[in-house]
Every structure is written in structure tokens, then in C-alpha cells.
Write a structure and sequence with these properties.
492 residues, alpha+beta, 11 helices, 22 strands, 27% strand, globular
């Protein structure tokens, strides 16, 4: 059952759907108490009696029963024809989906068995539904035909029932806030475990396979898989990923070359694309993985230890390709650094030695954003903005700044000024010897006309001093004053 077929079934799971007929719903509430399964409540629901709001709550559970990623927390299993218990379970599943599950005794027996073999420690709610889907036929070009075929299936979901604490509430009747204690058990819609039978494959029922859903890929219900399904549990998706990482760590003690790791990711992606059927789960065995590593440039001397490391850690089991790669992207992680790159941009990454250090270089063209802000990678230019004063503006109080060395440029000049007036017309600075210039004496005879200035003492050490007259043009004023604005940010 591939991803496209799975999506088709999920799409039909809605209350008002002419193509989907709900035959009936069974529900039960129970728990394990001292190792004994106790069913406290069961009920058969006639779909015709369901209001829309109530019906949608049940369909929400059924739809979540098919949620997840194939190969991770949505696994397809087959019945072992050589195992009598597995064969018996397959026959029971076949009878269940054909209607026997709607019988009270049959359903109650199933609920008790699930409680025991699933090892559920808390209260659970078990929901089972039988459906008929009028699956449209498709021709060779995937065009819908007028003829439909009836696909009958069942969904069994085991969800958690949890005591909730409501907390504070406001009562309109008593006009007060009080604490409400809840003694009712809330049904959590997301199933802990769920079963879908039979698989829907090639527009027909595949009675030899079923789907198992677990809430979290890292914690499947191993007891349910082994004791109820009679299937030897191999490993979860995270265990496959972590196990393979351990194999690589043992084969390459110093780590695999970055270029090899990226090429391996690319080769797995290509292999999956070439061998998958509509995104079905592609499995990889030890020889195939070894070939893909060698084709990616893995060191042949290190690869001599691959077989023994794989057998020791992964016990020669097949692993799902989806657990060895990230679909559509590759992640590069180091302490305090994490980068995600899409597959179509892998060619922009390379390793390079810079100043004696190995670096990961990412080629950037345009469209760079840093924390959502438009950015670029240009080196900032050191520049000083010069504001030209109008010819009629004159400086009535100008100090003589220490002269900068000829080769110091604006960087030295900037250290000689502390303040520029907001209008850009008057510059106020203190003399290094705190004595007024001749221009000051001439222009400020009237104390009331003296402009308000603030004196700063900002001498530059080891800089030669110049005479006050060197700063004057035409005796006592500037005809054209250039003011340097050091408060403005440099342009990039």
C-alpha cells in the first residue's frame, strides 16, 4: 500500500461522504487491573442515529488512525503463513471486516485480548468501525472510469482515556470563581495504536497485509506487535537511524568525509526514486547499503570493516531507506551550528581550507535572509559622509583640531571630533589649550549673542598641533564649510 493509496483512503474518512458507507461502530472502555483485563463498557452504534457533530468526533479518531509517515510510525505487516497463530489472526481479521466485528461477543473478546496483549497500563477507549468505499476504477493513464469496486475495510483504534483537571472556572449562576474538580475521563483522539485491514493495493483488497499505526515512531507497542500480531519485532525507525549512525562511527572512527556523506544522501535519494512505487517504503539490505557507500566515495580501506560492524549492530536486518535519509533535504550539524540544505542546492556546498582550517563553504548568490531579515554577504566599506554647508552659512565658533597625519585618512580624522551640531552649520570644539581663537574674539564681543555651545576636551595624543590661523579662511570665517558626519552609519 503506497502513499498515494493511503492518501486516497484518508481523504474518504469524513462523515458526509457519498462514496463511503459506515456499516457500524463498536466502542469499549476498560483497563488492566492487577494483570487482569477489565471491560467496563461496550456499545454498538448505529450510524443512522449519529448526529453530525458526534459522528465527526468518531471520524476524527479513524482518520488519525492512518496518520504518520510510512516506514516510521505507520508500518505495513504481512501475515506469516508458516505460523498457525498468524494464520488464525488473518482469518479472524477477514471475518471482522466482513461484519463479525459488529457482534457484541466478538468485539468484546477482541477488546479483552487487545488490553492483555497490548500491555496497556492506563484506562483505554477502543473504537472499531467497518466501512465500504466505492473505489473508482482507473485505466492505464490513471483516468477515472465510471465503474466502481467496493473496498470493505475495518479500523480498530486504541486511544488513551485521561482524567483531566478543569481548574478554575467562573459561574454565571453564583457570580463567583471556584475550582472545578473533574471526575470524568477524557478520550484523547490521537490513537496510541491502530489497525487498518486489509491493505488497499492496486485498487483492490490485499488480505495478506495490514497497516499498524503507533502514536510515536520511537516507541511502538512491542508487546502488541509480538504477542497479538505474532510478528518478531526488529527495530523502530529511530533505532534504525541510530544503529546505522553507530555503524558509520565504527567504520569511520574520524568520521566520514563531508563530500562522501553528501554524495551518499544523494545516491540513496536517487535509488528510492528509481525503485519506489508511488512513494512506497523502499527497504535496503546490507549489500545494497555497502554498494551505495562505495559508489559515494567511501574509503575502501575503512569499508573492509563494514560487514562485521553492520552484523554486530544491526544484526543484518533490512532497514527502510526513509530512516537513513531526510527526504528532500540534508542537515549539517556541529556544536552550536545547524544548517538545512535542500537537495537541489547540494552543489553549492564544498569543503575548503582557509587560513589553515578546514571550512564548510556555502556558495550564496542572492536572496539571503538572516533571521527573516534581507541580507547580503558584501564586505562593509569604511566611509565617511561629508555634508556640504550652504555658502551663506558661516562658522562663528570654530576650534582648531589637531592635524592628522597625511596618510591616516578619515579614520584618524574621526578621532579628532566629538560633536557635530544637528543642523550641520556650526561646529563646536574646545581648544586643546582652552584659549579662544582670534575669530572667536572678533565674533563674540557681545555676550548675549554668543551661541550656546558645549565644550568637549578630546585631545588626540601624539598628534602634531597646528596654529589657529591654519584653520581660517579669509581672515575670520569659512566661505564654504565642509562638515564631516561621523554619526551616520557607513553605507554597505
Amino acid at each position: 500500500m503506497n502513499k498515494k493509496e493511503l492518501g486516497e483512503i484518508k481523504k474518504q474518512l469524513k462523515f458526509d461522504n457519498d462514496k463511503l458507507l459506515l456499516k457500524g461502530i463498536q466502542e469499549a472502555y476498560g483497563k488492566n487491573r492487577d494483570g487482569e483485563a477489565s471491560i467496563q463498557f461496550t456499545r454498538l452504534i448505529n450510524p443512522d442515529t449519529l448526529e453530525k457533530e458526534e459522528g465527526e468526533l468518531y471520524f476524527d479518531i479513524f482518520k488519525k488512525s492512518l496518520g504518520g509517515t510510512p516506514g516510521k510510525n505507520l508500518l505495513e505487516y504481512g501475515f506469516d503463513a508458516s505460523d498457525p497463530q498468524a494464520k488464525d489472526l488473518q482469518k479472524r481479521f477477514y471475518d471482522y471486516k466482513n461484519g463479525s466485528l459488529l457482534k457484541e461477543d466478538e468485539f468484546k473478546a477482541l477488546a479483552v485480548e487487545l488490553l492483555k496483549k497490548g500491555d496497556y497500563r492506563n484506562n483505554v477507549y477502543i473504537t472499531a468501525g467497518i466501512f465500504e468505499y466505492a473505489a473508482p476504477g482507473l485505466n492505464a493513464n490513471n483516468e477515472v472510469l465510471e465503474e466502481n469496486s467496493i473496498f470493505r475495510f475495518m479500523i480498530v483504534a486504541i486511544t488513551e482515556a485521561r482524567l483531566t483537571d478543569i481548574g478554575l472556572y467562573y459561574s454565571t449562576a453564583t457570580n463567583e470563581v471556584a475550582r472545578k474538580v473533574n471526575d470524568e475521563m477524557q478520550i484523547i483522539p490521537a490513537p496510541l495504536d491502530a489497525i487498518f485491514y486489509p491493505s488497499f493495493s492496486s485498487r483492490a483488497s490485499d488480505v495478506n497485509h495490514f497497516l499498524y499505526h503507533c502514536k510515536a515512531a520511537k516507541s511502538p507497542n512491542i508487546e502488541l506487535i509480538e504477542e497479538f500480531f505474532h510478528i518478531p519485532f526488529v527495530s523502530s525507525a529511530p533505532e534504525q537511524s541510530e544503529g546505522f549512525a553507530k555503524v558509520i562511527g565504527e567504520v569511520f572512527p574520524q568520521g566520514m568525509e563531508a563530500s562522501t556523506a553528501m554524495k551518499f544522501h544523494e545516491n540513496i535519494s536517487d535509488y528510492v526514486s528509481e525503485n519506489s512505487q508511488e512513494d512506497s517504503v523502499v527497504m535496503l539490505d546490507k549489500p545494497r547499503i555497502k554498494d551505495l557507500l562505495l559508489a559515494s566515495g567511501a574509503n575502501s580501506e575503512n569499508m573492509q570493516h563494514f560487514d562485521s560492524a553492520y552484523s554486530k549492530i544491526l544484526e543484518d536486518q533490512e532497514v527502510a531507506a526513509v530512516n537513513l535519509m531526510e527526504k528532500g533535504k540534508i542537515s549539517l550539524k556541529a556544536p552550536s551550528i545547524s544548517i538545512s540544505v535542500k537537495d537541489d542546492a547540494l552543489e553549492q556546498i564544498r569543503t575548503e581550507t582557509i587560513n589553515g582550517k578546514r571550512c564548510l563553504v556555502i556558495e550564496m548568490d542572492e536572496g539571503l535572509e538572516i533571521s527573516g531579515l534581507p541580507s547580503n554577504l558584501q564586505s562593509p566599506k569604511k566611509s565617511v559622509n561629508v555634508i556640504h554647508a550652504a555658502p551663506e552659512q558661516t562658522a562663528s565658533h570654530v576650534s582648531s583640531a589637531p592635524a592628522a597625519p597625511a596618510d591616516s585618512g578619515f579614520a584618524t580624522a574621526s578621532s579628532s571630533f566629538d560633536s557635530v551640531s544637528s543642523q550641520g552649520a556650526n561646529v563646536s570644539e574646545s581648544w586643546s589649550d582652552a584659549s579662544p581663537s582670534p575669530a572667536e574674539t572678533a565674533s563674540m564681543t557681545d555676550e548675549e549673542n554668543r551661541p550656546e555651545t558645549e565644550s568637549f576636551s578630546s585631545p588626540v595624543q601624539d598628534s602634531p598641533q597646528t596654529d589657529a590661523s591654519d584653520s581660517m579662511v579669509d581672515g575670520d570665517h569659512f566661505d564654504d564649510l565642509d562638515i564631516i558626519d561621523f554619526n551616520r552609519q557607513p553605507e554597505l
